[in-house]
Design a protein that fits this description.
200 residues, mainly beta, 2 domains, four-stranded antiparallel sheet, three-stranded antiparallel sheet
Length: 200
């Protein structure tokens, strides 16, 4: 059995890929199995999110049949360095209110979208948010997680802030920082801390 490597070249934008195997040739007896370790190396990575791919080809001795095993690699790009593009509260000092008419609103611009690398490149590079959490604190006390959302596409999101805990109890007057964490698909975390004050 002989192994080969093909990079499809579609939208690779100068990225070079190379696959090496611990055994370039492998002999497997009939009705048996074998183990092969394959390593993918990438050079010339761009600063935008992209996906490159191709095939590992497997050709058996004495035949013209070739098995093509697809491979792909996703690069997150620089956009994931800051998945929270904008974050703020419409009011930073307020008395506890109702969820039906919250006294403040958390506004977040999340993720990123970039056009293709060239004039003829119609692709969009999308950096989504794999997980969004918002935790509320008061002093050393963790008042709970207000939000825990997954798989958010780039966009603007708005959430009501009432100044109350998860059980509906009004928070004690004072500073309550909200900690916003946005995690990328490759586990890079962007964080913002938004302080606000709750009055009587």
């Amino acid at each position: 059995m002989h192994l080969g490597f093909v990079q499809d070249g579609v939208g690779d934008a100068g990225i070079t890929a190379d696959v090496t195997a611990d055994q370039p040739e492998l002999t497997i007896p009939a009705n048996s199995s074998g183990t092969l370790h394959v390593t993918l190396s990438l050079t010339g990575l761009t600063h935008t999110a992209s996906v490159i791919g191709g095939w590992v080809t497997v050709t058996t001795d004495g035949t013209n049949d070739t098995l093509r095993v697809p491979w792909a690699a996703a690069t997150a790009g620089d956009a994931v360095v800051n998945l929270i593009r904008e974050a703020g509260l419409t009011s930073t000092t307020f008395a506890p209110g109702k969820s039906s008419d919250p006294p403040s609103q958390l506004q977040l611009q999340l993720g990123d979208v970039e056009a293709g690398l060239g004039a003829d490149d119609a692709r969009l590079a999308i950096a989504p948010v794999a997980r969004l959490t918002v935790d509320l604190y008061q002093g050393d006390s963790d008042l709970g997680r207000l939000l825990d959302l997954r798989s958010l596409l780039p966009g603007v999101y708005r959430f009501g802030v009432t100044g109350r805990g998860l059980l509906g109890r009004a928070a004690r007057p004072g500073q309550l920082p909200a900690v916003v964490d946005a995690t990328s698909v490759d586990s890079v975390v962007s964080e913002r801390v938004l302080p606000f004050a709750v009055g009587q």
